[in-house]
Amino acid sequence: MPARRIELMLCTGTGCVAGGALHIKDALEKEIARHGLPDEVSVVPTGCNGFCGQGPLLVVVPDQIFYGPLKTDDIPFLVQEHFLKGRPVPKLMFKPSEKKDRIPLLTDIPFFHKQMLLVLRNKGIIDPEKITDYLARDGYTALEKVLTSMSPEDVIGEITRAGLRGRGGAGFPTGIKWKVCRAEKKTPKYIIGNCDEGDPGAYMDRSLIESDPHALVEGITIAAYAIGASQGFIYIRTEYPLAIQRLHLAIEQARENGLIGKNILGLGVDFELEIRQGSGAFVCGEETSLIHSIEGENPEPRQRPPFPAQVGLWGCPTVINNVETLGTVPQIINRGAEWFASIGTETSKGTKIFSLVGKINNTGLIEVPMGITLREIINDIGGGIPGGKTFKAVQTGGPSGGCIPHNHIDLPIDYESLKEVGSMMGSGGMIVMDEDTCMVDVSKFFIQFTNDESCGKCSACRDGSEALLEVLTRITKGEGREGDVEFLEELGEAVKDASMCGLGTTLPNPVLSTIRYFREEYEAHIKEKRCPAKVCKSLTSFWIDPKLCQACLICMRECPGQSIYGEKSIIHVIDQGKCNKCGVCFDVCPPKFGAIKKLSGVPVPPVEHGIKVERKKKGDRLEGEHVQA
Amino acid sequence: MAKLTLDELRQKRAEAQKTVYLREGAFRGKVIVHMGTCGIAAGARGIVAAFLDEVERTGSHDIQVTTSGCAGLCSKEPMATVEMRDAAPVRYGELTAEKVKKIFKNHIVGGTAAAEYALGFGSERGA
Predict the structure, then answer these.
(1) Hey, which end of chain B has fewer CB within 10 Å, N or C?
(2) pLDDT tens-digit series, residues A189-214
(3) Residue contact A85–B23, C-beta within 8 A
């Protein structure tokens, strides 16, 4: 290949593709061709860059200039100015906020600063569809090392000494799981990569596969060697088409090159790897349900023990590891257990990938060392809460996890610390909430989810979630009764105790942790019929403050229920009887007026119809006037 | 594709590494071709190509070839600045493909600036 001077690392993860990255790619290639630059400048489609909130985006190498969010219309100018004439284009660079200056270099953007890339070390640097790109980044050197110089016991010892724990949520030591399976006499043995990622707002596993599928293929091959399996499966949700496509390709490439299959690299080891698709039942993330699903049975969990490491797929010893766990394995083999164990905290080693979503400025996928504080994640990497709002809580661990309140912001994150505060590591979803979030509503949302997803095998989970949901719904409707909170607590504990699998034993966590930290919010809903965050519709009213309304007609026009009365220069009034509380008026009222107020727990003050508006200054032009003319 | 042996895998990896050097960002030196309108009109595009050809021909993947705007001495275009690590930058003018070859050989590979084509040593002082 002739020497090039620029490569454009264009993110083609699911998020950026949805935002139009493939159109950007076409536009780039067209403009590069138009300027006769194809020999000098090339576009490299990569997996998820991580900074999803700024997509579609690209990084220019070797200069490390970060551009995003891009539109196809920007491309002709960008190609001519930067890639032809060598003048980087500031207006397309990252702007942290209105008041702050643009930051040209990826390496100077705080979002990337505090991250430590270990599992995601290739994200944005390789084309996930080319095995040569992975090879160039020391790909398959760990497999080489394992097959040429390590016994299976050595590998298990290395992983054990590294202190690697399962990244799927529970945090079971990976080395011990492997050792138990290795010790089983029965054959054949199986290895399964679990990519049934179902938590709302979580996309760590998907992004890992989309950006570096060979890391998973290499990791699972090493794991298979360690436990003595010659057949493996990767169980992935069918809702992840791009990840499935790239994983298929990676497996094919690995097979063609003799890196999996019969007699790997001529070294006498066999390993076959196949994909199994799940159809998006949350319970399939639970290992015994997952096994049933692969077997073609109903995806219902079964009692453990025996654990799958002893009696698993088709009754044979089976190790199920999360794909992030498997993706970590080649790094530990290459760089050593001591190196890995030097990162993180006493009990939790290495790094963890989180998807940082919710009320946060920098939405995206991050990898951080264990032991980092929530404050660093939210303020430094996440860039704080948008709109000057205050941070209220962060939800970790998805529907199985809990809410961690703002006063724990300096909590160093590891498996134990999260459990102590009533949450869990989970697979790595991190949903940030601000002052406008109602905690009762949040716990209702998660119970709704687990209630839908409960497989129905145990009554504690099936009926327990139903009963929890019923009470929570009542509370949010303003029909809460004295004793409801105590009932939720008691029932929550009972569901935990009496459910069989992980889904049931953890589903009360969102309720219990929000009661633990935000009990007063529950009380306000029940006793005062007030929603402090003004989210629950039944408890909230919208009201136009006659002193602030400038009669600009915008809310009147936008109200879908035509529930606002008034006319030009006459103050607008919401008909409380007709209002369906959709909140559109609140959103469209110009911020400089801020006339629409949410009220909860207080009566709506009556307003006379037909009050004439008082303009502060004669001749003031009102926002929206040009629209109505 | 044939299945690889251990040696073939290692060879394939070494080959692959030659294609992604731009992303590693470890450069020993940098060639900046000035691509203002004046530079492009005087043939700077061909100069970029000539430098890239030399990078490939000599396997000097630790040399970054990049472009920048007009350097201000339009009558001497096409121009390029060669910045080797730990050495003062050298600016060359009125370049041709032959001159590029010599500059590459003497300065970038050999370490001695091709004084006969140099317009100046060091950078202009900033305000």
Answers:
(1) C
(2) 999 999 999 888 899 999 999 999 99
(3) no
Tens digit of pLDDT for each residue in A95-107? 988 788 999 999 8
Element (H, E) at A471: helix A459-476
The residues near A77 (Cβ < 8 Å, ≥ 6 apart) are A89
Q: What is the pLDDT of residues B25-83, one digit of tens each?
A: 778 889 999 988 889 999 999 999 999 999 989 888 889 998 888 888 888 889 999 99
- Report CB contact under 8 Å: A86, B35: yes
> Could you tell me the pTM of the whole model?
0.90
Query: How far A350 CA sits from the closest chain B CA (Å)?
Result: 24
User: What is the nearest CA distance from A136 to chain B, expressed in angstroms?
Assistant: 4
Amino acid at B51: F
A504 within 8 A of A494, measured Cβ to Cβ: no
Using a pLDDT cut of 70, give the percent of chain A over it: 97
CA angle (A252, A287, A371) in 5-degree steps: 90
Contact status, residue A425 vs residue A418, Cβ threshold 8 Å: yes
The 10s digit of each residue's pLDDT in A110-169 is 999 889 999 999 999 999 999 999 999 999 999 999 999 999 999 999 999 999 999 988
Q: How far apart are the first and last CA of chain B?
A: 60
Inter-chain contact B35–A84, Cβ cutoff 8 Å?
Answer: yes
Distance between CA atoms of residues A183 and A447, nearest Å: 40
Kindly state the DSSP code that residue A105 receives in the 8-state scheme: B
Residue A413 to residue A348: CA distance in whole angstroms: 9
